[in-house]
Amino acid sequence: MESLTIILASQSPRRRELLKYITDDFTVIKPSCDEILPDGIGIFDSAEHLAVKKALCVAEGNKDSLVIGCDTVVIIDGAVLGKPKDEAEAFLMLRALSGKTHMVVSGVCLSYKGRTLSFSQKTSVTFYELSDSEILSYISSCRPLDKAGAYGIQDKGALFVKEISGDYYNIVGFPIARLSREIKKLIELCGG
From CA 181, how far away is CA 144, in angstroms rounded? Predict the structure, then answer.
């Protein structure tokens, strides 16, 4: 991957840190596309749809680069939780997750030399019952407005987690082990 130009189509600091497990040699370009989902898209397809949108937006001007787009959503009781718009919405999201199991779905899209490869990874997360004071304390200390579902498992949100089933790093923001394999697969498909 030394001669390959890699672009991360995300400004997430967590994704930047995780991508360093694969390579230190990448640049970040914020996608300039909207994140509006079309009517009728399934909730488990929403993250992958947005990841494709982001990757293709950045790939438009970077055809010879490997562009990586990603989006993560939290799904609880048939509803998609993205990033909360304010602290009140963050409180409602965390209250909804309290004592229940939810699904974290990360969609990833790779675009390279006109080819795309996309996939979704799901991880199940169960929270302990949370008191209102725990939720308010977390919101004030961790400022979770930039996180799907209003929590980060890599920060004090870890104190809410009773159990996970699946890829931990998927919850952080990237299913990094699978991403590494999918990158190799796409590079081979494109002739090295």
Answer: 30
